[in-house]
Amino acid sequence: MYCRDYIFAVLILCLGGSAWSASVLPTGSAPPGLEFPHFPDRVHTFVWRNWSVVEPERLAVVLGTSVGNVAAIAESMGLSPSRPIPSEQKARGYITVLRRNWHLLPYEQLLTLLDMSAEQLAYSLREDDFLFIKLGQLKPTCEPLKYVPPNEQAKKRAAEIKRIVRETFGDEFSQPAEPRFAFVRQLNKPRPPRLKNEVGGERREVGKETVARRVASRGEAHFALRFIYSYFALYGDPLANPELDPYPDGLLQRLAELGVNGVWIHTVLRHLAPSETFPEFGVGHEIRLGNLRKLVERAKRYGIGVYLYINEPRAMPETFFKTRPHIKGVREGDFIAMCTSVPEVRQWLTDSLAYVFENVPDLAGVFTITASENLTNCASHHGPAQCPRCKDRAPAEIIAEVNTAIVAGVHRANPDARVLVWDWGWVDAWVKDIIANLPKSVWLMSVSEWSKPITRGGVKSVVGEYSISAVGPG
């Protein structure tokens, strides 16, 4: 059993099974699922889409049939014999499986296919970088899918697909393929030291300008902090399972060679610290903090600091507020903000961060997002008027206050840790007052290329965010 499975089991028991139940699996508008007329039927679509990512035995369970029948469907479309699915692929690739079947299966069969509980899927849809939003904020209505022997028309269409596959790919499908996520295993260990012949065996002449450019490129860095995110980290709860390391040594080594001196990791604060005020918080925190300490220690050997993503306090389901109506803030759907205008909520923020930094003393710092992404404070989604306490407060005051509570916790435990305050999502009219009320110790982070004019293919536009080709400033 993965550590994450254990943590979820304990969490559900501690919350009386009410916080994440099957009833909270989101549906949105629930339109009919998309149709796939290029396949003979839904069963053929299902087998085609899952043959290389889920073992045939599980496909057979979902369809209520035998492995032989599933294999026959695959063979009829020209798919190669099944290969074992590595356990790492199952853990890292579940979003791929979910996307491939979002319009094919109802939730009950998705849970069987993914080998997940309703509670785990509900958590992932919310916390895995807004996965439900990326899936369209809707779960299509799908009838249960059961195996039915293909009729003659279906067999004819499957044979046509097989012909196209063979004409297009030849015997390529039958050749051994590199397992998915093999590159992660390659990064598990650092490369051995390499000796360079700096003199070389040939004579070259270069101009002074070339030498000057090369010397300059090896000079001092322009930025004190150069931090980055792992492109293969699991997002939702990466510290729950040490086997799925977001920053193996080989990656840390390569990042350090490129001048990176900081990396960040997604966290949810209620999973990292126990609380007397909210005793259901902190389930599994020992496991997560232990894994965080190990990551921080390894990264430090490469001159890299670890930063936590802090987008807090996360909104909670209504059941959480049954005995705490005095801290209810803005509502969005089935979730309600923990109102930070209530002192005990801000104190929880401060105490929890202090606990984390006391127990992981070499943490480099945090970066905060306070007006976007998850619903957190009552001004985070620009709707404080819905809250009886925040409706008469300026959003800038609320956001500065949240960041101040975060700084207090981090610096209580480690005065040298950095707190980066990102202006992501701040309304322009708020910015001046937010900055004026921030603690002087914070670093203010902004999007360099925002609103930068660009022309691509003769079309004029402006950068919204995350440009690759236009670095700014905007």
Report on this model:
The chain is an alpha/beta fold and 474 residues long. Helix content is 38%, strand content 10%. The protein folds into 2 domains: 19-183, no CATH class; 221-441, Glycosidases (TIM Barrel, Alpha-Beta Barrel). It has helices at residues 3-14, 42-50, 56-63, 67-76, 87-92, 94-101, 107-114, 118-127, 131-134, 152-169, 182-186, 208-217, 249-257, 285-301, 343-359, 395-413, 428-436, and strands at 227-229, 262-266, 305-310, 316-317, 328-332, 335-338, 365-369, 418-422, 443-445, 453-456, 459-462. Strands 1-2-3-7-8-9 form a 6-stranded parallel beta sheet. A 3-stranded antiparallel beta sheet has the order 4-6-5, with no helix packed on it. Helix 14 (285-301) links the parallel strand 2 and strand 3. Helix 3 packs antiparallel against helix 7. It starts with a helix and ends in a 12-residue tail after the last strand.
